[in-house]
Amino acid sequence: MAELLRTHPLEAWTSAFERLPDTVRITVEPFVATVDVRLGAVGPEVRTHLGVDLPTAPNTWVPADAGRAVWLGPDEWLLSSTTETPEELEARVRAAVLPLGGSATDVSAQRIGLRLTGARVRDVLAKGCSIDLHPRVFGRGSSAQTSLGQAGVVLLALSDAGDDHVVLVRSSFAGYLADWLLDAALEFTTTPDR
What we know:
5-stranded antiparallel sheet, alpha+beta, Gyrase A, domain 2, Alpha-Beta Plaits
């Protein structure tokens, strides 16, 4: 039996992303294992069992070993890992939160990550996102579930300068969002005549 090759849903957009200027860079993040965690109460025992402090402040994220822990709601987090398989991450997290009355579900195939960097990234995002992205409000460690264009996304700020973000979008909307971002970045791809 032939083995199926894993291809990224945004593989066809890679060359278009590469043609963008340094002021607006878009790169497709590699596939990562992701688990949705539901847990009623977060106390010190969570760190002991899970090995990471889950963010408890709304709309924040923290580094977690080789991934991230993103606050999605009062009792919900998104954990990712670049070093574990989806099955390994889900099993490890489930074993940690089950004794605490929690649950863990593999959602690795649910979202695609796009990294946006450059001096004009906030301008591009502002064209389709209604939240305030100024670094004094949305700096490193901030996250938001919002709309970008017509797609629901999870937006993460990776820098305090406002020039580095990750957009997590559902796989089924990835192509739409890639086209939308390329269109939104169009005005920054040409230099004005002098």
